[in-house]
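Batch manifest line 203
LIGAND: adenosine-5'-diphosphate
JOB: complex structure
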Amino acid sequence: MIATPAKPAAYNVVLLFGPPGSGKGTWGKILGMMPGFYHFSTGEMFRHLNVESDLGKRIMETMRRGELAPDEIAFDLWQQHLNNATLIGSFHPPKDILVLDGFPRTPPQAEMLKAVAVVKVILQLDCADREILVERLHKRAVLEGRHDDANEAVIRRRFAVYDRDTAKTLAHFPDDLIAFIDVSLVPVQILAAISQTLARRLA
Ligand code: ADP
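JOB STATUS: finished
ARTIFACT:
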């Protein structure tokens, strides 16, 4: 009997991990501007849900507390958005590199992702001094009007949720995929570190 070839993975992916204020959204957007890259943020996906809908209301409440949305909902919405982006021709998998910002955030999400994607590299954006990140979040709250960045207790809760889930989630991927990027450096140095890592790993 002729073996059926394995179904090719739909997505080639770069993962961005980082606590609130680490800049993963900013760097994700910058990478998404490069030809052949497509950036997708689950945080933005949730922030754009219609708050008049039951689902939108429920998720908004969860975000206000600094907690995560349920895994199944995160995965289903993520798939729907990427299917739509593929359908309208703004995203071309598997040719385009998908830059994922904020997904996966839990072990079940990691397994869901692995079923449909090949992870090429994981950029772990962080720094030793979390107070630098708190400072950046305060600035962002004022500049962008993000309600989840305005409240100190919610920020601390989001750091705690990040620390609780990240190591467990990263454990679902081989160690050698992970590159640590120190975000306490100035932007041009961070850009250099990210570019060098991607040039090495995606060549
Ligand atoms: P941050 O990393 O600064 O918390 P994000 O924009 O990535 O900001 O996420 C904002 C919020 O959206 C999270 O606190 C969480 O409530 C929700 N969220 C984002 N991504 C996910 C995900 N993959 N699973 C569950 N909830 C998520």
